[in-house]
Amino acid sequence: MRRPILLRQTVATYPVEPVADDAWLAIAFRAFARLAERGRVRDVLILGTGNGLDALAALEIFDPDALTVTDLFEECLSVARENVLAHLEDGATTEIDFVAGDLLTAVPPTTRVDLVYENLPNIPTTPEVELERGVNTGRFFDATGLDVPERFDAHRLALHWRCLRDAWAHVRPGGGVLTALGGRVPVEVALELHRERGYDPELVAFDVKLQSEPALVLPGYGVAEEATGIEFTFYASEAVEIVAAARASGLDGEDLRGAVSPELARLAISAREAERRLESGQDVAHSVLLIHGRKPG
Ligand SMILES: C[S@@+](CC[C@H](N)C(=O)[O-])C[C@H]1O[C@@H](n2cnc3c(N)ncnc32)[C@H](O)[C@@H]1O
What we know:
This protein has about 300 residues and is an alpha/beta fold. The protein has a domain at about 20-210 and about 290-295: Vaccinia Virus protein VP39 (Rossmann fold). About 40% of the residues lie in helices and about 20% in strands. The chain has 11 helices and 11 strands. It has helices spanning about 25-40, 55-60, 75-85, 135, 150-155, 160-165, 185-195, 215-230, 240-250, 255-265, 270-280, and strands spanning about 45, 65-70, 95-100, 115-120, 125, 140, 170-180, 200-210, 235, 270, 285-295. Helix 1 runs parallel beside helix 2 (about 55-60), helix 8 (about 215-230) packs antiparallel against helix 11 and helix 9 runs antiparallel to helix 10. It is globular, with a radius of gyration of 18 Å. The structure holds S-adenosylmethionine.
């Protein structure tokens, strides 16, 4: 961001990571910048904004004609709205709408955009999770009644699949959906998620970050390993430095992933092993994938 941003955060909003190097959004903004270099992005839909920071970055990086900002939770969206409106630059002309609802259900059917950005949660919720608490909104979702192919459901990608399906009608040909994912699944599966819905996917930004809130997140993946037989991928914390060094040489996206893959493979651990390391006081890491799925046309 070009200027200081003072965000209001409440118990209802997904929190910003306290350390900038651990933040998701810095990686998402690199993806925004790459897409902006390729051509004008006229309108953007932020699906599941959390606290509004991603919407502010979209305004700054794309300077779009129109911006639609959504979240599942009214209370969270109203704080995000306040944060966005408090930081509009003088003379800004973007038409901005805020709509609360599940995925794209509250978005007017006539809305068309060049870009949808989403960083939706991966872990199906359980009764003890208080779903509306900001810290949980980013991790857990209610999977009741979601009709998702078994492969993507098992890899904990169900909500992303639904988003790609429902976004299709709103994305202009030549536009696309930018999916932000903790890459705890093989990248091929994440790319296949887009292909299966008709998009042409590309990994536009890649990184490895420390797992934030590990005690909240790791058990969900440990349980999934037992239930599905799939081994999810986490890394020993040295992976963060290895990727940062390769990125400093100017690589990003698929080029960066390709360059670090052999070293990352050496540091890969399962969710259960990540839980054991957490118990013994060690940090663990995971990759972050920013996949842009282009709608042909
Ligand atoms: C991981 S946070 C991402 C926040 C922000 N977009 C970012 O990239 O840092 C996920 C957000 O998606 C919202 N969300 C969860 N399920 C949703 C759904 N079914 N429809 C719309 N938003 C949803 C949550 O409330 C939360 O604010």
